[in-house]
Amino acid sequence: MIKLQGVWKEYQIDREITFTALKDITLTIEKGEFIGVVGPSGCGKSTLMYVMGLLDQPTKGSIHVDEKNVTGLGDDKISALRNAFFGFVFQQFNLINKLTVLENILLPSVYASVKLSYDPLEKARDLVDKFGLKGKENSYPNKISGGQQQRVAIARALIMHPECILADEPTGNLDSKTGESILDLLSELNREEKITIVVVTHDAHVAERTRRTIKMVDGQIV
Amino acid sequence: MKYIRYLVFTIKSAFFDFSRSKGRTFLTSLGILIGVMAVVLLMVLGLGLKRYIEQQFESLGSNLMYVMPGSKATITRGGGIVGGIKFDDKDVRTIEKVKSITYIAPGYAKAGSTVEANGKTEIVEIVGSSEQIVPMFNLEVEYGRLMEKKDVQKGGKVIMLSTTVVEKLFDSAEESVGKNVTMENQNFKIIGVIKSKGGGGLGGGGLDDHAYIPFKATYSFNPDKKFYAIYFKAENKDAIPQIKEDVQRLLERRYDKDDFSVLEQKEIMETISSIFSIINTVLVAIAAISLVVGGIGIMNIMYVTVTERIREIGIRRALGAKKSDILAQFLTESVILSLIGGILGLTVSYVIVFFLQSLFPAYIDAQSIILALGVSSAIGIIFGVFPAKKAADLTPMDAIRYE
Ligand SMILES: Nc1ncnc2c1ncn2[C@@H]1O[C@H](COP(=O)(O)OP(=O)(O)OP(=O)(O)O)[C@@H](O)[C@H]1O
Ligand SMILES: [Mg+2]
User: What are the residue boundaries of the ABC transporter domain, all occurrences included (chain A) (predicted)?
Assistant: First the structure.
């Protein structure tokens, strides 16, 4: 479903120096997989996730999403693909603080480039109920707990019915119990809704919960 | 439906940011406020002045004509009366003979003179003329009587003042009739008080500050017995071209054709109006510079806003916002910011114009409102586009990882 072929990512440090964060990554992710990406800090896990999630272009190599080569697509098409195909979950939750819980969940639907076959508001309400956020719909993100914020973020990732959720250290800012419940939620989504999930983590315990682990060192898969 | 939600999200997020930094929003809008206010007020002032001048001329009645020194080119180009010749009684008698002229009067004028009574002083413009000035300028009596032929022949020290002037010198306009006033070190007896023609209040008194006296009575301070203008009235509008031609021809026998000009009221009015228009356009253009400065203020604050919200931009991009969505969001903000300034500027202008109305015919027309709001939106777009473009062009990954 997602295929990376010979992907390199170089960061320009200054005019002469470049830093290679991804070195010749070739990787295939099948539909319905639950993958953990592990490795020491700075090995390029996040970079891999961002490149895979089309948040940045690889320096070299190609990315196929659903058999379609997306490298070199125009920004509008890539944005539309991000919107419809991927859902993102971050360590810092990355909710927009001036929008309410419900508005945050709805935000991706505002940017939808095709007419949705369902009412996003109804869907958002369902997710609120399902994730135990009832009564918090009109709260602002900084007024709710970290665990609740991460649930809002997951609900936001789900509003567009994505094929794949990319999560970068989703439990990194949570205590172990809350983190566990977030992982339960992700496993459930994978199991019951067949959503492909990629979790980036440096925590071996988190990786244990996934079904396949990709180990990275120094920008390479080992 | 989708677009409504989109717009609501965009506008809501704009207002959220404004309410979080009210002081900054206000100060940024202040630049536009001042600019819009300056432009609107100057426009209003210009239109009001134009209307004021037109009213004053209209109150003189139609078909009024003048002979003035100087070539028409210098007069209509706003050169004013420079050097040139002066006319005398002989010219009046020459023109008098032209067909279709109903009234004719000499026009000796001395601006900035004063009348004094009861220890009070008023600034007036002395108009030395004949009794024919009365029908010519549509003067109407309020108390006493109007100037008559016998006053003019005798050259007696009699004077007609407007109610506006006498009310400032005497307890009541009525009792001023028959009293003396001092002007140019001589005593003049008030024979009549004439109705106000309105206007004034713009520093000058308009037509109401005229002090009409017989021409002969000016001799003591006008020793060469000459005057700068001859007023006459055409029987009807159609006669004006012929009169012009005849008067021109007759006076050319005595003077060089560049030394005088025969004008009709319309031409003078248009000249004065066009001078005011030019001055006003220049002033409005200068005021418009302050709008540009206001726009730069908006641009500046929008750059700050973009920098502060790089992460938010990254999040939105990750969720699927296109570059155009981000561009639209920040443009909406800068337009709203500058529209707030525009609306506040209009409001303040309204209040000022309300108080100005007692002085002269000023009002804010629909055109000024549309212009002010249009211009402030345009400024929002023009000065918002670069910061918004900067926001839109951020790489989503760099934006979302920005600390
Ligand atoms: N914009 C950038 N410019 C330059 N170097 C960068 C940039 N982003 C990341 N890097 C470098 O690329 C390498 C990989 O970064 P990345 O964030 O992918 O690591 P990571 O494996 O996610 O680490 P961590 O576990 O600490 O989150 C790091 O050495 C980092 O310093
Ligand atoms: Mg990382």
Answer: 2-222
